[in-house]
Amino acid sequence: MSGHLTDPVLAGVRHGFGTRDAPAPDVYVRPHQVHGAAVVEATACRNAAQPPDADGIVSALPGLAVAVVTADCVPVLLAAPVGTAVSAVHAGWRGLAAGVVKAAVEVLVRVSGAGPAELVAAIGPHIGPCCYEVDEPVLEALERCHGSAARAAARPARPGHALLDLGGLVRAALFDAGLPAAAVGGAAAVCTRCDPERFHSHRRDGARAGRLLHHVTASGPTSSQG
Ligand SMILES: [Zn+2]
What we know:
- By secondary structure, the protein is of the alpha+beta class.
- The chain has helices at 42-47, 93-98, 100-112, 136-146, 148-152, 166-176, 202-205; strands at 14-16, 28-29, 39-41, 56-59, 65-70, 74-79, 86-91, 120-123, 133-135, 154-156, 161-164, 184-185, 212-217.
């Protein structure tokens, strides 16, 4: 198995979650990721001498792919109806604690003119609850932003630690931002650490881990390209 993973909720929108050997799009823009909650528009990214610091990017530019990279954190790709505006988001625990998912939904709503209930979102390959142990300060930081959903996504591990379902927390954040349950896909949500054949993993490979690239492309206002 190689190439990109796709999600049925994004049918009709050009997108892909990267694996180790997936080719990058010929042309794409991506922000300089800093584990925060800033979300930039692709126009600002494209015209800047250096990519702006952000962990989400929103585009309504037809044909220009926007992307984020990950190695265990959660990649999320979102789209407004028929893909007229799209977003790529990098959500690790720090970005989640800062509210990056909600911020991306807000910018996509503003750029697209669609309501949150009209958006779709796909959750891509990330470290699973099987492998993602965090400590109490991380849970407390997540609880400040996500309330009871943070504890609901955690189950006890050794003392002072928990195994965290990061993807589950992203899903909860998307619902909280107004997306309907059926609009959130997880077809590509597999554990990066458990599958060295297909995925890079920071927890497994350390600082030398490679990065997976995930991309999505807006279609023109009257186009329905797949
Ligand atoms: Zn795992």
